[in-house]
Model the fold of this input.
Amino acid sequence: MWLLAVDTTSRDASVALLHDACLVALIATPGDEPHSTRLFRDIEHTLAEANLKLSDIDVYAVANGPGAFTALRVGLTAIKGLAEMHNKPVVAVSLLEAVCQSAASGPGILVPIVDAYRKQVYGGVYEKTANDIVRCTPERVLTLGEFLVAVMQEGFQPVHCCIVSPQLDRFVEALAASAFAGAAREQVSPVLAEAVARRAQQKFARGEIRDALSLEANYVRRSDAELLWKPK
Done:
């Protein structure tokens, strides 16, 4: 089975190609070039490494959020279009789920956090077992302090948790000043397309697929337009 995965949830956009359980290609283009101009070029280069055509892809996967609104929509729109054009299934993977997939830590309780800017983080709590990753709480966007308090209120003690993040260095001081100062921590790569692909492979095997029309973004945070809109 050929599976093509895309992550455009942040500036570290990437594309990965799996054949069964083997990573065949992974492309992450550095720089400030917009996702909208580089994504299809990266997909083309990824396919070229395996001498494939788009019609050869069996399953598409995409990180459907949370993340930057515009960047996130680029990846979703591209995958929706390709899947519909070739009548292929899609697997949606949460960004926080992909962060957990990347972690070497586990089995155990993983607490993925990703910088949401505006002094907030996207966060969640997952249990990683030998064969799966299970979400334990809703994903949310809060300040890091508010999020960690919520995690404890839901019954997860720092001693049993591992904080996982691609931007762990940004949270060192805040973590040190919290009840999670002594919790285990793990930095993962911000290039997450391979993790999206591997998590999608597991979900596909369980039948967790969508068609292009039903694929939606997992924004978690409301858009500025929604926040600023006032009824007349």
Q: What stands out?
A: DSSP finds seven helices and twelve strands in the chain.
